[in-house]
Specification:
Mean pLDDT: 76
Shape: globular
Number of helices: 6
CATH topology of the largest domain: Topoisomerase I, Chain A, domain 4
Helix content: 55-70%
Structural class: alpha+beta
Strand content: 5-15%
Order of helices and strands: HHHEHEHEEH
Largest sheet: 4 strands, mixed
Length: about 220
Amino acid sequence: MAGVITLLIFGLGLTLGIILDDQKYNLVEEVNMEQEVRYFSLQMQYMYLNSYSTYNNCPILTTALKAAVEDLSSSLGEVISYEEENKASDKRKDLVMRRYFLDNIRYWMLARESQEKCQMEIVTILYFYSEDCPSCPNQGTILTYFKTLFGEQVLVFPINLRYQQSEPMIDIISSQFEVTKYPTLVINDKKYEGVMNQEQLQQIICLSLTSAPPCQK
């Protein structure tokens, strides 16, 4: 009787685990599909803007891009957190993180193009960090503060160097900016190595966002 009960409990736990895994993977796929459609829409807007330069589509594109980056950060952040809490396999975690990185890079590239085409008042920040870097969490906290302070005008794209071996694009972009120290920030294509304190970062951001309220104090 004890053996039967044990088997039933084990079977129930296994079934629940499979159901939760299915739900988790469905969540990942749903987020991925949503990001694909959103990015494709933004690409089409940008192409249309280039084709019909007489029509000012910049305000729409700017709003859509900022909303997409915010959504990317929150939705995929939730997925990654879920993966960590539920101790997903290393392979699954690796795929999720690679996808997160690639989404960040393509939005960063589109933001740079839109910045040039539409003279958008934004600051793009590539944040290179490593999990074994003791000062990186401090830099992350400062970046979060400025995301809250400036809202959609500051777009932060984190790049976890832990996945450099499994994702070639991390190698390419790290080599392009000659990233050798962590943390490293690339702000509007200019590189800054080491931890940047709050005052230094605000000064750099305000060089591009002179009309933003925090920069007028």
